[in-house]
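Write out the 3D structure for:
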Amino acid sequence: MNSMSSVFTTANIMYMMKGMVLTVQIAVATIILSLVLGTVLALFKSYAKGKLKILSVFSTVYIEIFRCTPNLLWIYFIYFGLKGSQFVIGTLIFTIFTSAVVAEIVRGGLNAIPKGQFEGAASQGFDFFQTLAYVILPQTFKSIIPALLSQMTTVIKDTCYLRAVAIADFMWQGMVVIGQYASTFTQIIAVFAFMAAAYFIINFSLSIAVRKYQKRIMIQ
């Protein structure tokens, strides 16, 4: 029973991979939703003026609250305060505070765009929203790809915090295998090494894909 074969059975590996599927699903949904919400928050904070100033204030307050409080606090708050499937709750948990980080990333990209871009677009007959959609945001997203990649990998890694509320992500499933089948220090370390390797493969593959994309758009 002390051999590695008693831990790394086909059933145990499939059990842990089932958790990885949930981890990836939550991470992908979080990244997509956070990019949308974060972009909206960044636009509010950067461009909401006059009568719309309240939107800028709301964005600022939202960003500061979620950037300056522990993520684990919100994991507990949402998990015990709302009902839903593990996927829905996990995605909501990570979206609310990842959006705050993405908002600051996008805002940094917006601030890097020369103000003359608006004037140039206006001279071509573009209104404000057309300028954002066709001129400003495309340039912004190209410039912030490295920062977004860093945040994407952070989301994938931080899903392990969901273990604190018994959401069956990859880390939770791995710990169940350790608790039930690993009886020696070597077996425990082997399972942890397996989980580390799985996280590394996903994040490193993502990094390579984004680098190739960057090279392609630079050539264009």
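The chain has a mean pLDDT of 88.
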